[in-house]
Amino acid sequence: MGAGIDLPPLNLPELMRRHGISPHKSLGQNFLLDGNILRRIVESAEITPSESVLEIGAGLGSLTRWLAQAAKQVVAVEVDLHLIPILHQVLTAWPQVRVVHGDILQLDPAILMGEDGYVVVANIPYYITSALFRYLLESRVKPSRMVLTVQHEVAERICAAAGELSILALSVQVYGQPKLLFRIPAGAFYPPPKVDSEVLRVDLYPQPFIPPDNLDDFFRLIKAGFSQKRKMLHNALYAGLGWPREKLDQLLEKTGIDPQRRAQTLSLDEWRRLTQVYRALN
What we know:
By secondary structure, the protein is of the alpha/beta class.
């Protein structure tokens, strides 16, 4: 579905001046101004009129207004208390929007959204990306897809293939298939960040690629494997897990993985096999 009728752009600098506030660098606040890009983000999410949206990082409501035209309801979460009065003011015309003040990692998605299948749209700092995926996708109610605006380089890292994988890439790809959609130049934001951003869509699997009961061990293993990523896998796991070398030899031999490889060269499927054998030996 499209994003409905065109909306007049918000004068964000003026809005903030009127309320006596300025953007917080520490919260990664860069607000999207460009109406065409806001529309494209909503269209990329393919929201139907029967779907609910969880917006994380509602900011000043620029994107929230577009989401409200497409969705049955929007739950707009914002961590900065100073922005809440502006959000209420900007969104008066959209009763289907509920503004919630809080840190998404401290709020219960089951209470916020009520049922599975909601859509997540978020403009988030890269350092919470991995934690956010795990938090939302291990909740009692789960989203069906996510559309994220992140730094361009972070988006590329998330979509990396075996050979260039990272903890971040694995943390996302274990839950769904990420895809780069389009780049947003720094100048489309107020204030402009130092780097361009990218809109990324992740279509989530009905179940994680690794069984839910195995996820703690999977995350333990990738954290150990990447703890010293310039080292061979055997040495990195030895340092990260504290297992005797003989037991690690057995782990890698049973999994069929060369101990001289490095963590970033392993595919997600190899990490899955490693997790299964690790659990059997533990």
